[in-house]
Amino acid sequence: MKRIKFSILFVFLLAGVDLQAQNVKHSFSFNDTTFLLDGKKFQMISGEMHYPRVPREAWRQRMKMAKAMGLNTIGTYVFWNLHEPQKGKYDFSGNNDVAEFVKIAQEEGLWVILRPSPYVCAEWEFGGYPYWLEKDKGLIVRSKEPKYLDAYRSYINAIGKQLVPLQINHGGNILMVQIENEYGSYSNDKEYLDINRKMFIKAGFDGLLYTCDPESAIKDGHLPGLLPAINGIDNPAKVKQLIKANHNGTGPFYIAEWYPAWFDWWGAKHHTVPASEYVNKLDAVLSAGISINMYMFHGGTTRGFMNGANCNDTNPYEPQVSSYDYDAPLDEAGNATDKFMKFREVIQRYLPAGKELPPVPEKNLVMTIPAFNLTKSTGLFDVLPAPQNNLTPLTFEDLNQAYGFVLYRTTLNNVKSGVLKINGLRDYGLIFINGKKAGDLDRRHKQDSLLLTLPRGKVTLDILVENSGRINFGPYLLKNLKGITGKVLLGGKEIQNWQMFSLPFDHIDYKKLKNSNITNDAPVIKSGTFILENVADSYLNMSKWGKGVVWINGHNLGRYWAIGPQETLYLPAVWLKKGQNEIAVLELIKPGQATISGLKEPILDEPIN
């Protein structure tokens, strides 16, 4: 019997074992069929939950919910673009404190499966890659290209300093660490995968390493010598067959991503899957002794500008919504769903004799925030920063800007009316003539042209471009520049001499928001305050607004867009205050709106416009 063994000293956290035991020697290993803890069979019943998608203040509550459903493990990606937003500048503070997330899991009696691979997919901006990788000419992600490997090496070393001490063989609760991520769906370079393995080991990840891939890609994505895991398959016989075929005819058997639901994108139907369709599948997997990680157990919210997008040769550009509710067992606000309760019933059957799951915590308090008006209206074009000038349009990357918006401005002199064509618009553009809206262009519909009627004389042409989310999966991962990435033509002639105004909106400064004389339909920042006597979770109803972003007390809640299906933004109680609360809304297409109210339930499935 083949066995890999890691000896450890740590506080044992598995349900059914004395959590207060100190300085007890334990081992983590596997044999031909199963994982082992202290030489005894151990079945991971895991759920994926991403630390940046949950307010730090709520991490512990969500983990208690995981325990109540019967999970013994939490899986999480680590997101490169959060931790190294600019090259060489690292951030592990606040909601980016992944080490604290792992430590809280240990305190709550949960193991962790860590996924710090440089590429995460995850419906996340650029698949987790930092935007600045696009700035370096010749750099190719997911390859052996030297500049990429240098950047990757620096990142994984920084991650190692945070998380290596928390591995099980160093006294922590990280059971396994994944290298790369579904690489077989992208390529098949085993030498590149081995470079990954060596980087992880050199960074200090000296425990059990594994790979994960879907059925069609496991052969290409698995690195011999590492444990293979399977994604998207829950037929026990098929799972065992696929893993044995790539692991010298042996186990153990691990489903690294099991999908009891799915995600949403703008302008498409909300995705739901009845629990009844997955209860028997979960029961079959657990009864077969297979370990499993539910993707997602709790999705949470993709706040700010961190949503990704799908795009390939057959499907259009599809940016994902801010809600990552995912129809998961634990909903966006951290409450148990019907799926949660039915999965809990299944998991209870596989508890050790005499053991019971903890009671399900009560639903979080929720409130309806009464309607209130935003009293200030600041024209976006009235608070522009100093521009950068260039003969041709500069991309976001040229401007050292990751996310948000860029306003492109030029002056036309006695130019005839004609068709405006923007080559390489990434991704949504609003066009203005002398401050008045002339139309919009949307990459989702492959729109790049608009007929302009121009007045005589000097004309100011403005093009406000939104980065709606870099592609996170598929063949266009290497083509993720943002802004205007090609030439701008009017009547077939190139327009030159541009000013670029960077509007990253990485934070909102309420003090700079002052009333403007709003006389046209240009974008506006609405702001104001509202008073609360008590705080509880709520959902901002944005159904009467157009398209934009909302900040509450400085926290970016995410994007809204009238095209649906998402019409609300989740507002966590932990980000509210008794008394006065500040709010700001960047509204792109309906500047006349001024009223917002809260709801007790989200609207995630509004009919599509």
Provide the fold topology.
Layout lengths: L3 E7 L13 E7 L4 E3 L2 E3 L2 E5 L9 H11 L3 E5 L2 H4 L14 H10 L3 E5 L30 H18 L10 E5 L11 H13 L5 E7 L3 H4 L5 E5 L4 H10 L8 E5 L17 H12 L3 E8 L10 E2 L7 E2 L18 H11 L23 E2 L2 E4 L8 E3 L14 E9 L4 E5 L2 E2 L1 E6 L2 E7 L6 E4 L5 E9 L4 E3 L9 E2 L3 E3 L2 E2 L3 E6 L20 E9 L5 E4 L5 E6 L2 E7 L6 E4 L7 E9 L7 E2 L1 E2 L10
Parallel strand pairs: 5-6, 5-12, 6-7, 7-8, 8-9, 9-10, 10-11, 11-12, 13-25
Antiparallel strand pairs: 1-2, 2-3, 3-4, 13-14, 15-36, 16-30, 17-29, 18-24, 18-29, 19-23, 19-27, 20-26, 21-22, 21-24, 27-28, 30-35, 31-34, 31-37, 32-33, 32-35
In brief, what are we looking at here?
This protein has 609 residues and is of the alpha+beta class. It is built from nine helices and 37 strands. Helices cover 15% and strands 29% of the residues.
Description:
The protein has 609 residues and is an alpha+beta fold. It folds into three domains: 44-347, Glycosidases (TIM Barrel, Alpha-Beta Barrel), CATH 3.20.20; 372-378 and 513-599, Jelly Rolls; 384-503, Jelly Rolls (Sandwich), CATH 2.60.120. The chain is built from nine helices and 37 strands. Helix 8 runs parallel beside helix 9. Residues 1-25 have low confidence and may be disordered.
Which stretches are poorly predicted, pLDDT < 50 over at least 5 residues? Answer: 1-25
- The CATH architecture of the largest domain would be Alpha-Beta Barrel
Separate helix tally: 9
How many separate domains? 3
